[in-house]
Design goal:
With 694 residues, the chain is mainly beta. It folds into five domains: 99 residues, no CATH class; 149 residues, Sandwich (Jelly Rolls), CATH 2.60.120; 146 residues, Sandwich (Jelly Rolls), CATH 2.60.120.230; 100 residues, Immunoglobulin-like, CATH 2.60.40; 128 residues, Immunoglobulin-like (Sandwich). The chain contains eight helices and 45 strands. Strands 33, 34, 35, 36, 37, 40, 41, 42, 43, 44 and 45 form an eleven-stranded mixed beta sheet that branches. A five-stranded antiparallel beta sheet has the order 6-3-9-5-7. Strands 26, 27, 30, 31 and 32 form a five-stranded antiparallel beta sheet that branches.
């Protein structure tokens, strides 16, 4: 007997029959390119080709599609969702998909009348017409090969009064050999005296710029560097104006010093630098750069063994006065893998100021905060970096890898996160400077036998992603010396998991967490329910008599994640079919049947969660945030149960859901939402289409 199509099947058929959207350059692509790409991709700028017309974009379309899909372009390394920045160069998923669709459809131009006007720029400077332009009188010769070069160039400003800088923009006649440039003011005349003494423009040395007008005393050197710094430029940085009311001071009669770092690129280059200066009214407070670790990591004992893929560096600085932060950045070389800066406020709140998951030496930007951020006295600033000195790092300059220590060359390493601030009260400037000099002057104490981990080494036990922790969430901690060598499993007594295993404890604000297992490099714990209602926590690992430094983590109320069978946080979910057999591509679940999904991160429960308690019934806690919903293949599924997983530790959630009719055969996206928070993307469940009932 012929059956009428169900509404869901009818809608599917109509969707398949509908014509695909025709994407054109003039209507769809040009607005994306002109708003996000053309400012750099135009003549006279750093990009290797222009994107100012249909012909330009069509010529490079496959490259544009590939680099936007990977998010290599536009260059923007800061993770979203934690701190808001000005002028974010981040395309939306729909914009990226639109570019790919345009390429797939043959890169049609469309109606020229619909194309928006090509952006115009007032001058060849990105920030517009400058107030003063300074240029090196002669170029500096960079040899074809050899070690990296630090050279300090002296530009006489001729200023007859104090001026205040809201921006500096730099151009080089040889951008391929530029590593970075730091700007300093010199009122002593010492730089001018040394300029050209060896027959070439400028004078040599990394640290010599800090000694201008001061003694060789370390504290005096640091104070001079703090007072004379005017910001800098690194590859990938986009010039921006400082927020209104904030400016660097360029004193009357001062020379502008360009501390320039060159790395030879295989051919002789003639480098001539030109700087545009943009003036502002006199600001109320002096600008300071808070670095953690200090002085680009020179005091952090950086010494990365060959083959080490997860070398960690961290440092903390506590603000002695109230400040207003306005920008943040990071610096490292080729071995850099990731970096994160956090602020722990006196209230306990933890803010992620900057998080770069995938460090790239070629794209080092300064991220201007969307609004000034007031950080009160007593706020602890933590800077953390991780390095990869293994053969698996494609950017490693050495093959095979070799030991790398702190140094000035590109093939050495540095490491710091930099927070630019002004004292909330101008009268606090001297106190802040004295505190920073003291901090930077001290060499970091050797880690010794202490456990070592950093905040990005604390990851979701299901998604394997770092971020905020959630009450009751299963976590994994990665580091060094976290526990005695070897594996130790959980200890369960009367249905409760112990919080001390193998003489190891993990404390969240002094509250011990239930432990699932320990090794010297990895721990698995469940975040205590006492975190509920907090906005941050300090985590300490105690291995016998040794304790780690406290590591700051933000806390979220809920953040569900689904376990995967391969333990990577993506792919086949940890799912049982209705007959309790494992779900997979060879054993898919029929549409209409019930599946059992295992997840974590549901947050506080009703009744309240008990740390380490095994769910033995007869009643089972359910997530306090409501509702719990499930989609399979994008289609809402009926949820039959959502709560504690029987016989498993509190913090593991079980969700029973029915696969909706009409879901296609194959691996389908699986999403669990608790309240308004959805589980991680990339988890799938294997489904087979059920013919019965059609």
């Amino acid at each position: 007997m012929h059956r009428l199509a169900t509404p869901s099947l009818l809608l599917t058929a109509l969707a398949l029959a509908a014509p695909a959207q025709t994407v054109t350059y003039t209507k769809d692509i040009a607005p994306i390119i002109y708003n996000n790409c053309t400012s750099c991709h135009r003549p006279g700028q750093v990009s290797p080709f222009a994107l100012m017309s249909y012909a330009d974009v069509a010529k490079h379309a496959p490259t544009i599609a590939a680099t936007t899909q990977s998010r290599y372009m536009p260059p923007w390394k800061a993770e979203p969702g934690y701190t808001s920045y000005r002028n974010e160069r981040r395309l939306t998923a729909s914009q990226i998909n639109l570019i790919q669709k345009w390429v797939d459809q043959g890169m049609q131009q469309g109606d020229p009348a619909l194309e928006p006007p090509v952006p115009t720029f007032p001058t060849d400077w990105q920030l517009g017409t400058p107030d003063l332009v300074l240029q090196m009188p002669t170029s500096f010769t960079v040899p074809a090969d050899g070690p990296d070069i630090y050279r300090n160039f002296v530009l006489q400003t001729g200023l007859k009064s104090d001026q205040y800088l809201r921006a500096l923009e730099i151009k080089s006649s040889a951008p391929t050999v530029m590593h970075h440039v730091l700007f300093y003011s010199d009122t002593s005349g010492d730089g001018r005296k040394m300029d050209g003494a060896d027959g070439q423009p400028g004078f040599p040395g990394f640290g010599s710029v800090f000694l201008l007008g001061s003694s060789s005393n370390l504290s005096a050197t640091i104070a001079n560097a703090l007072a004379g710094g005017l910001g800098g430029w690194v590859p990938g940085a986009t010039p921006e104006f400082l927020p209104t009311g904030i400016a660097y001071t360029l004193p009357n009669g001062a020379d502008l010093i360009l501390q320039s770092h060159f790395h030879p690129d295989g051919k002789v280059e003639q480098a001539q630098l030109t700087v545009a200066l943009y003036f502002a009214p006199k600001p109320a407070s002096q600008v300071f750069s808070v670095q953690a670790p200090g002085f680009f990591g020179i005091q952090a004992n950086i010494d990365i063994p060959a083959g080490k893929s997860d070398y960690m560096v961290r440092s903390s600085y506590t603000l002695p006065v109230d400040v207003d932060a306005f920008s943040v950045s990071a610096h490292a070389h080729y071995l850099g893998k990731g970096s994160r800066m956090t602020a722990t406020l006196p209230t306990g709140e933890v803010r992620i100021l900057l998080w770069i998951k995938d460090w790239d030496f070629s794209w080092q930007d300064t991220y201007m905060l969307q609004n000034l951020m007031t950080l009160p006295k007593g706020t602890r600033i933590d800077g953390e970096l991780i390095y990869d000195n293994s053969a698996n790092n494609p950017r490693n300059p050495f093959s095979p890898p070799k030991e790398v220590k702190w140094g000035e060359n590109s093939t050495d390493e540095m490491g710091s996160l930099i927070l630019n601030v002004v004292p909330h009260s101008p009268s606090d400037a001297l106190s802040l400077q004295a505190s920073m000099v003291s901090y930077v002057s001290k060499t970091a104490a050797p880690v010794g036998n202490k456990p070592l981990f950093i905040s990005t080494g604390v990851v979701d036990g299901a998604s394997a992603e770092s971020g905020a922790v959630v009450p009751g969430k299963v976590l994994a901690l990665y580091g060094a010396r976290l526990a005695p060598t070897g594996y130790a499993g959980p200890q369960v007594d009367n249905g409760k998991f112990a919080s001390k295993v193998n003489n190891v404890q993990v404390l969240f604000d002094t509250v011990p967490a239930p432990i699932l297992y320990t090794t010297d490099g990895q721990l698995s714990v469940v975040a205590p329910y006492a975190l509920d209602g907090k906005s941050g926590t300090q985590v300490v690992v105690k291995n016998g008599s040794f304790s780690s430094d406290p590591v700051a983590l933000p806390v979220a109320r809920v953040a569900p994640s689904i376990f995967s069978t391969n333990l990577t946080g993506t792919g086949q979910g940890a799912v049982l079919n209705q007959d309790l057999s494992p779900n997979n591509a060879k054993n898919p679940a029929p549409a209409g049947s019930i599946i059992v999904v295992y997840a974590t991160g549901e947050g506080q429960t009703t009744p309240g969660g008990v740390d380490g308690q095994r769910a033995d019934g007869p009643t089972y806690p359910s997530p306090a945030p409501k509702p719990v919903t499930v989609t399979i293949g994008g289609v809402p599924a009926e949820v039959l149960y959502a709560g504690a997983a029987p016989q498993l530790i509190a913090g593991v959630m079980q969700v029973n859901a029915r696969i909706p009719a009409g879901v296609q055969t194959g691996d389908q996206p699986l999403v669990v939402t608790v309240g308004t928070s959805a589980s991680q993307p990339g988890i799938t469940v294997a489904v087979k289409y059920a013919l019965s009932g059609l």
